[in-house]
Amino acid sequence: MSVTEVLPVHRVVPYRWVQLGLGLIAMMAISSPQYVWTLFVKPFQTATGGTLPAIQITFSLLVVLQTWLSPFQGWLIERFGARFLITLGCILSGMGWIFSAGIASVTGLYLTYGLFCGVGTGIVYIGIVGLMLKWFPDRRGFATGIVAAGYGFGAILTTFPIDTMIRTSGHQTTLMTFGIVLGGVGALAGLFMRQPPEQIIALSAAGSGLQGTNVAPAKMLKTPVFWLLFVMMTMMSTGGLMVISQFAPFMRSFGIADLTVFGMAALPFALTLDRITNGLTRPFFGWVSDHIGRENTMLIAFSLEAAAFFLMLTVRDNALLFALMSGVVFFGWGEIFSLFPSTLTDTFGAKDATTKYGFLYMAQGIGSVLGGPVAASLHDATGSWIPVFIAIIVMDVVTAVLALFVLKPMRAAYLAMIRT
What we know:
Blueprint: H1 12-30, H2 32-35, H3 37-48, H4 52-68, H5 70-80, H6 82-100, H7 106-135, H8 140-153, H9 159-169, H10 171-190, H11 198-208, H12 217-220, H13 224-253, E1 260-261, E2 264-265, H14 266-292, H15 294-314, H16 319-333, H17 336-348, H18 353-382, H19 386-418
Antiparallel strand pairs: 1-2
């Protein structure tokens, strides 16, 4: 950590809200490569001649690189500081769009959109979440929820402009334009990110009563609590990432993508609504979990997602109801990005929090494979999206039950043990 990036103690309390705002902006700037991916699926199929499962590997590659490299990226941020690496990550994310504009092969798509956007967004995401876990030890659920909301909200500002530009100017111009704009905005915010002083982390954590004894990352990886969290996050990641990556294909399969809802096409309407609920849920359920407990909140949110997926199936011939239920799905899904990092840091401590969350964040990479090419392959094998939806509903219900009846007592026993 660079000494020049550490603020004096007396400036920490007001300045942490500035950091929260900057983190929000940077997260919004890097969200589009993941959350509007579905709009580029058809143009990329046309440009490359690739099949749907082959094209969807790009999405999985993006998320795998975003997540599976995160422990190493977290270590780099802990070692060299947030400012340089978060700025670099935003630039890489923008370059991924710029370079992918001219590709004509599936391999080229993997090496541009998948590689650059995956590495870039991973650095930014893990870096900002790790910073907020340190800046706000007394409000971890809320603070991580706010910046995670930026990642969910960001595409609200870009979904309709990108959809319109693709239709009028083509996907190449769209990728070039938004790659420059979003990469530049994110990099500018990254230049002002800072690490909080270590003594403030210790003092605030002690006063909050939220943090367990600091556990080294290597020791954390040997605990059953961590691996239970990992399995749960994998299952919960799968459903949301399936909808994000496959939303346009399965709406077209159900014959409702181009129907009109409130004077606009159903697909961009649903995507915009999903971004809103996906953003709102993160600070909301993060705040709720700060008051009623992480596991209790997980039970509520995960059950809500399972119910919404079931209702999506039952109304799949109604564009309006289907779009509304997709919004509920994301309201029950997006909070995993505030609940899981907060639960992890509450359990294993704020020291090296970025690196620790990097290991847990790898679960989303597995979820992207299950929700991307595996889900697409299951659809191709069965000729229907219904088996995919059923599998996700089952995983949601299982995870909700695990949260209350397995994770809660297991975590309580672990914390009691390490504090004695």
